[in-house]
Design brief:
alpha/beta, Nucleotidyltransferase, domain 5, 4-stranded mixed β-sheet, two-stranded parallel sheet, 6 strands, about 35% helix, about 25% strand, globular
Amino acid sequence: MIQALLAEAGIALADCDAVAFGAGPGSFTGVRTACGVAQGLAFGAKLPAVPVVTLDAMALACHQRHGAEAVLVVLDARMGEVYWAQYRFDNGAPVAVSPPALSAPADVRPQGAPVMCGNGLSAYAEAFPAGGFAEVMPHAEQIAQLAAVAFAAGRTVTAAEAQPLYLRNKVAYTQAERRDMAASKEGGA
């Protein structure tokens, strides 16, 4: 797919300035895959890597699509939690008001009245009754835009230094934890 994209653009990987990737937070497998592919491409082509925070890209998408100057992004983290951050925009660039965090949906505490975006709004609708734009998700277009700014400012890393942004250390429940959760649901029903 990458070769086809480069061929369509009429360039070789070596013609690129850097390799950008969505560093997370996000699904464990997706974030690891994005980082691993970016590392391999950057190493092979002797290019720098540009990690872009997924929530920054979501905020930029919300700003571009809906004109929001204050944005709260909420990404479903599964396991009853969300990744979230709040931003304001300064000359079209997202500036974190509340940095990326992981919490229960009910613990998300926006400052002011930001426009809310992301699939966490629909996954946990009861925690976000005001709603928002659940369809806004991170996209390569915004990752490329943010990476271009970071690259111009010299904010790159080597392929070996490229790392995912993890906010959760635990990616699955044990069998005992799942049994306990099922028992508590049955007891509460």
